[in-house]
Write a structure and sequence with these properties.
Blueprint (H helix, E strand, L loop, with lengths): L1 H19 L10 E7 L5 E10 L4 E10 L5 E2 L1
Antiparallel strand pairs: 1-2, 2-3, 3-4
């Protein structure tokens, strides 16, 4: 009986997890690579890559991030 209850609980959890994550969600993930800290330590430059599903590629942008506030500018 305990095994049946455990199996039902695991199936229920797996069904809820499937509702949260869908294959198309991977296209919304933003990849941040190659961070470089400026000489004065106030700014971090990094490359931000976003999926472009229409053209089957990733679009890269250079992003400047203020180290103190976390504000970013492209």
């Amino acid at each position: 009986m305990k095994r049946i209850v455990l199996c039902l609980a695991l199936v229920t959890l797996a069904a809820h997890a499937a509702d949260r994550w869908k294959p198309d969600d991977r296209l919304r993930i933003v990849n941040i690579t190659d961070p470089q800290i400026s000489a004065d330590g106030k700014t971090v430059l990094a490359i931000e890559a976003r999926a472009n599903a229409k053209e089957n590629r990733y679009d890269n942008e250079l992003v400047a991030i203020d180290a103190a506030s976390g504000a970013s500018a492209r």
